[in-house]
Amino acid sequence: MLVDTGANVTLLRAVLAQKLKEQLIYMGPNISLKTATGDKTEVRGKLDESIECGSRKFHHRIYVADVTDPCILGLDFLKKFNFTVDLEKKEIRTGGEEIPLFSASVQHLKSCSVLAKKRTIIPARSECLIEGVPEVPEQFRYAVTDFPSQVSHKGVLVAAALVYLEREAIPVIVLNLNNKPKILDEGAVIATCEPVVDIIIRPQEFSGEQYLPSSLDNLEIFDEGQRTAVRKLLKEFQNSFSTCDADVGRCNMTQHRINTGDHPPIKQYRRRLPLARKEEADNLVKEMVDNRIIEESS
């Protein structure tokens, strides 16, 4: 269950509502709501049902829609029953009862170290895939690997990645920027694991037909049957391909970190751009702003 003060109404996922179809009141297809991403989704119906929150049950009207979360407690529910949201203590309160926003098992999840499974030598100025094991096994299922800030590995970077901890070994990509090989002994800390409480898959929606680059359609080396099969495959997964130079995509699952060590900032004097190149530079900057690759600084 998700508590969302940005949602005006309380919502239930349509699949779960099918179990309560006797109480479900179906609504017309012309009623929709706008999600946090700005997309519209159809409201399929409504029902009056009891919601258990803490030790009490609250009778409330719930709207049914195709949402990702099983249930979203909206602002209407929080206001109606005089709930107070305390983000600092990670709890909601009503009638003197304090209800944690996270289960006890989730609250106490902390990051743990990833240890090298065996002794590994990383060649100079190269990257290597190292097998690691969590220091505290079976603490959680999914995690994001990150650079171990508490350990000093000068000239060594670790790629952030989502990993499944129930495997025998955790794949960790380590980059050695030094001009000498780097030795990681068995049991050495190579990364940290930040727990992932929930993974939400949000399918990307496109307006209009997407087209593959013409270079992917050049399949002269195949016969007609193979060309048909490849085109079908490419069309099925066309969202994985860039349609133009500006279509670079973006991800907000994790933050990219560049470790510069103790190197001081590099200062360079501004140089005037030749007038012959100014128009082209302005067009390139405008194109990147329009495609949300860069943004104006405040």
Describe this structure as you would to a colleague.
By secondary structure, the protein is of the alpha+beta class. The protein folds into 3 domains: 99 residues, Beta Barrel (Cathepsin D, subunit A, domain 1), CATH 2.40.70.10; 89 residues, Deoxyuridine 5'-Triphosphate Nucleotidohydrolase, Chain A; 32 residues. The protein contains 5 helices and 19 strands. Strands 1, 2, 3, 4, 5, 6 and 7 form a 7-stranded mixed β-sheet that branches. The longest helix is centred in the C-terminal third of the chain and has 16 residues. The relative contact order is 0.10. About 4% of the residues have low confidence.
SSE blueprint:
Layout: E1 2-3, E2 11-13, H1 14-17, E3 25-26, E4 32-34, E5 40-53, E6 56-65, E7 71-73, H2 75-80, E8 84-86, E9 91-94, E10 97-100, H3 104-107, E11 112-116, E12 120-122, E13 126-134, E14 142-146, E15 156-158, E16 161-164, E17 170-176, E18 182-184, E19 189-195, H4 224-236, H5 275-290
Parallel strand pairs: 1-7, 2-6
Antiparallel strand pairs: 2-7, 3-5, 4-5, 5-6, 8-9, 9-10, 11-13, 11-19, 12-18, 13-17, 14-16, 14-19, 15-17
The number of helices is: 5
Name of the top-level CATH class of the largest domain = Mainly Beta
Taken in chain order, the helices and strands follow as EEHEEEEEHEEEHEEEEEEEEEHH
Proportion in helices: 10-25%
| Average predicted confidence as pLDDT | 78
The number of E-state strands comes to 19
Please identify which CATH superfamily of the largest domain we are dealing with: Acid Proteases
The description of the largest β-sheet is: 7 strands, mixed
Q: Given the helix and strand composition, which structural class is it?
A: alpha+beta
Low-confidence segments, given as residue ranges, are 104-108, 202-209
Q: Provide the CATH architecture of the largest domain.
A: Beta Barrel
Alpha-carbon distance between the two ends:
38 Å
How many individual domains?
A: 3
Radius of gyration: 26 Å
What coarse outline follows from CA principal-axis ratios?
A: extended
CATH fold-level assignment of the largest domain: Cathepsin D, subunit A, domain 1
